[in-house]
Amino acid sequence: MALKILGISAFYHDSAAALIEDGYVIAAAQEERFTRRKHDAGFPSHAIRFCLEYSGLGLENLDAIVFYDKPFLKLERLLETYYAFAPKGVSSFVNAIPVWLKEKMFLKDLIRKELKKLGDWHPERTKLLFPEHHLSHAASAFYASPFSKAVVVTVDGVGEWATASVCLGDGNKITILHELRFPHSLGLFYSAFTYYLGFRVNSGEYKVMGLAPYGRKDAESTRKYTDIILNQLIHLYDDGSVWLNQTYFSYATGLRMVPDAKWEKLFGFPRRKPEELIEQHHCDLALAMQQVTEEAMLRMTRFAYHSVSDGEARKNLCLAGGVALNCVANGKIWEQGLFEKIFIQPAAGDAGGAVGAALAGHYIYFNQPRQLSDSADRMNGAFLGPEPEEKEILKVIRKYGAVAHHFPDDRSLLAETASLLAKGKVTGWVQGRMEFGPRALGNRSILADPRIPDMQKVLNLKIKFREGFRPFAPAVCAEDASSVFDPPLVSPYMLLVGTVKKEYRFSLPENYTDLPLFERLYIPRSPWPAITHVDYSARIQTVHRETNPLFYALLREFKYQTGCPVLVNTSFNVRGQPIVCSPEDAYICFMATGMDALVINRHLFLKEEQTEKDKNKFSITTQPD
Amino acid sequence: MEFLKDLFRFLMQRKKWWLIPLIIFLLIIGILLVFGSGSALAPFIYTLF
Q1: Which residues face A489 on adjacent strands?
Q2: Which of helix, strand or coil describes residue B16?
Q3: Which of B3, B20, B26 would best serve as a mutation to test chain A binding (most A beta carbons within 10 A)?
Q4: pLDDT in tens, A33-78
């Protein structure tokens, strides 16, 4: 009988649940989407309830429930760290220990108590398992990949002790070959800069990545920052492992990532306060740090490649862990050309640990054989969440007195939507199952025409209410990708960065480098300015007919009507809010922002047709994220 | 009780006996923190840190 296993990640950030049956991921969702609290760290009751309802199972039907890390091992790290750094760290100790004593130390009981609220559960039949954090990440990447053998690399802030690992995946086995251990961590190194540059740790890292291209590669300040980083903060070894000079980091025992005063002395400017103006030196520092991170990732994957002698495994690379969301570094790894194929877990951060924990339970604890029947991965395009039901949409229409047009078939819906997009209308697009992971991949997306010169500005400031420097990603049919972008790549989860092909690049004005930061931003660089970043890079999503036929057809229709093969695809949310989940979330977000149209299943809502009274009723809170 | 068993098994497996005094210390502090807040024990806790 097929094993049914529930995976859980919780209590740190990005809580999530995933349900697998016979090794296939049936359902997975992040708790934040239901509670509407971004990065919700609470026990994922809503996500578990969804997974069970979707699969038609109760807790009593499960063979195992698997939590994504080992609490005692984490406690060991905590105690040993405080012991090693004592008497430093008292204030952090006083803050951390009560939380541990009240709940984290008794996690098993806490999980049982929370599960009991969700239904009958029989501990004697259903195992409660705790694989290691990095094993959960490795499992989320390897077992969900289409590869029978692969090199597996995981990199994040910290799990129990490990902060990065190199593994060999072979059949149903994962062998950990090398580990990097706390406090030396590439993820925490990145987060330290995220903090110093005024963004939120565990949330703003991708903003730093987006900021880096505004840095000046050849500038004296960038060179100086790189030297300081490499000479004072971090030692980068040939195998990609890092040693962090703890004199300049305070995360091990303090309540902040870094000692502000010491860093100010090092870099010559104070920590940027959240929401403060971004200046050139911030961008230069982001660039210097991003380049060091990329170098570490390149070395680590190279080392991983050479650590494995199996020729078959060396063809494939699997990546997971929060740092694997750094699509610029991923793009460089791909360009390096060592591996023939790369699979990056779409929920590479801690949320994906839920999938990995469940898969580790299936293949490692229950020792189930791994059969791969085709070349597709096991993530179903990351479309693993709830889908909008007709009755929910009709309820929204009734509740808000919304005006909607219903289309009888996909063809007419696609023709109208593509036509709206071609007229410059920014359109919310809610179809099918919600994505699992941080990226919207065409089911909970805001779409727009990338050819319109001020589209990036409009989307950032009037619709997403976020920082003006943030770039947008292109969605392109897989077959068209290589005609627009270099190098040729398959990037269904928007986790690889490429560049706009040379022949499409516009030359820049002569005085370009003298222009102020934000003036440089709005100079068109290609026929698709909204998706071309300042360094001509683009975080590409290749859309595949097999995993998302409707979105694929929309891109085709848009190309047919306009000749343009690309659409802007950004997540359907505003700053500080989770991506919308239900039709009601989508309608509220649509009404509260400058979006022009909203499509949910075959219902089209046009902003101009909604009554003025209704528009004023909606407000949405944006928060720093 | 199960918690203590699990903890003992974990320490056996990891051979980290030296952590026992730390954990006992932690548990005592924990008890003081849980039961001591707002009571006569509170000043004792503050002097510890």
Answers
A1: none
A2: coil
A3: B26
A4: 999 999 999 999 999 999 999 999 999 999 999 999 999 999 899 8
CA A333 to chain B, closest CA, distance in angstroms equals 36
Helices and strands in chain B: count of H runs, count of E runs = 3, 0
Side-chain half-sphere of A221: how many Cα atoms within 13 Å? 14
> CA-CA distance, A604 to A430, in Å (whole number)?
10
Cβ distance B6 to A79 less than 8 Å, yes or no, reads: no
> pTM here?
0.94
Digit-coded pLDDT (tens) for A124-179: 899 999 999 999 999 999 999 999 999 999 999 999 999 999 999 999 999 999 99
CB nearest to B30's CB, from A83, A93, A101: A101
CA distances from A568 to A423, A530, A532 (A): 14, 7, 10
Helix (H) or strand (E) holding A539: strand A537-543
Q: How far apart are CA A229 and CA A212, in angstroms?
A: 15
Is residue A279 within 8 A of residue A215, CB to CB? The reply is: no
Does B46 map to a domain?
Answer: yes
- A64 Cβ contact partners less than 8 Å away, ≥ 6 residues apart: A3, A5, A6, A126, A127, A128, A129, A361, A365, A366
Please count the other Cβ atoms lying within 10 Å of the Cβ belonging to residue A449.
23
Instruction: Please indicate, yes or no, if residue B11 is contained in any of the structural domains.
Output: no
d(CA A507, CA A525) in angstroms, rounded, equals 7
Q: Could you identify the residue written with the tokens 């210097």?
A: A288
- By residue count, chain A amounts to 625
Residue of B nearest to A74 (CA): B10
The tally of domains found in chain B comes to 1
When divided into structural domains, chain A yields a total of: 1
3-state secondary structure of A366: coil
The CATH number for A514's domain is: 3.90.870.20
**Encoded tokens for A520:** 């440089």
Cα angle A475, A480, A483 (rounded to 5 degrees) comes to 110
- Tokens encoding A302: 């190279």
The pLDDT assigned to A325 comes to 97
- Whole domain around residue A469: which residue ranges? 390-617
Closest chain B residue by Cα to residue A99: B30
First to last CA, chain A: 45
Question: Does the bond joining A474 to the residue before it have cis omega, within 30 degrees of 0?
Answer: no
Q: What is the rounded CA–CA span in Å between residue A75 and residue A469?
A: 40
Cα-trace Rg, chain A = 24
